[in-house]
Design a protein that fits this description.
Distance between the termini: 20 Å
Number of helices: 7
CATH superfamily of the largest domain: Flavodoxin domain
CATH topology of the largest domain: Rossmann fold
Shape: globular
CATH architecture of the largest domain: 3-Layer(aba) Sandwich
Radius of gyration: 19 Å
Strand content: 15-25%
Number of domains: 2
CATH class of the largest domain: Alpha Beta
Bound molecules: flavin mononucleotide
Helix content: 25-40%
Number of strands: 9
Length: 272
């Protein structure tokens, strides 16, 4: 069968996009007739309003970042609106070197409940959204080599028509609660209401408002928030003038703790 390939991702700071697009490209390279790739970037809110469905002759690579050990809850409605209709899926999660906990099993369960057949799954590491040093510049060349090997295994599975063979992924059901950061005394803290500040470096170029996946930054006055902040850090990492920052003490403590406790390099894991 000649498959069409789809690369779908939510990627506020670009690491999930890099992993998904690399895998799509490598699978396409290894299939006969170098299949065309269709890209669906559902990072921005307007894209998540469009319904999308697939058919049995399509491969859909779907990547999301891990937020609090789970699939980001703001994506659940959209993911559950996708119709698989027997298409093959490859769920990918990208996490910031702490852990992906139940995110991969949750994503795989959602896709299978929507009529996808999962051919393979993977957990990859991306530079942590909160940090400039944790998993810095990942996925890096070593990760991309592993993605290349993963594509080899997927192409082999497809060529041998064994893509219906099931596989398990790590994680627990029922899924564990969302991972909570802790304050200096070890008490869980809720940082959901924290929003980034804007410094005098801001030139009001509006890039932050354009890249916010929640459409929450006001175009008229970019230091104003008109919706929720998911702490994705798109506005912080993409600002050309480093004008956006967090100063909440609990957020900053959590970031420092992550940088200390999870500095040891974790490696990608693939399942098929
Ligand atoms: C709100 C939030 C929660 C996160 N939770 C986790 C986590 O539980 N474990 C982890 O290792 N990384 C966590 N991360 C880091 C992201 O998974 C990581 O930076 C990912 O590469 C971001 O993907 P993107 O570049 O495609 O946006 C979190 C990031 C954010 C913004």
């Amino acid at each position: 069968m000649e498959f069409k390939i789809n690369a779908m991702y939510f990627s506020a700071t670009g690491t999930t996009r890099k992993a998904v697009c690399c895998l799509a490209d490598k699978i396409s390279e290894k299939l006969q007739n170098r299949a065309m790739i269709k890209y669906v970037d559902f990072t921005l809110p307007q894209v998540r309003k469009e319904s999308i469905s697939f058919s049995y002759d399509e491969i859909v690579i779907i990547g999301i970042p891990v937020y609090a050990g789970r699939v980001p809850n703001i994506l659940l409605k959209y993911l559950k609106s996708i119709e698989g209709n027997g298409a093959l899926s490859i769920p990918m999660v990208v996490y910031g070197n702490r852990n992906y906990d139940d995110a991969l099993i949750e994503l795989k369960d959602i896709l299978e409940s929507k009529g996808f057949n999962t051919v393979a799954s993977g957990a990859f590491i991306g530079e942590h959204a909160f940090s400039d040093i944790l998993a810095k510049n990942r996925p890096d060349s070593q990760d991309l080599e592993i993605i290349n090997g993963f594509a080899d295994k997927i192409a082999f599975k497809l060529a041998n028509k064994s893509h219906a063979e099931k596989h398990d992924v790590p994680g627990q059901r029922p899924y564990r609660p969302y991972y909570m950061p802790r304050d200096k005394t070890g008490q869980p803290v809720d940082i959901r209401k924290v929003t980034p500040k804007t410094s005098s470096n801001c030139t009001s170029c509006k890039l932050c408002a354009k890249v916010c996946p929640m459409g929450s930054i006001s175009f008229d006055e970019v230091s104003n928030f008109k919706g929720i902040c998911i702490k994705c850090c798109a506005c912080i990492k993409k600002c050309p003038n480093q004008a956006k920052y967090f100063d909440d003490p609990d957020y900053l403590h959590h970031k420092e703790e992550l940088e200390i406790n999870f500095i040891f390099r974790r490696e990608p894991e693939v399942f098929l």
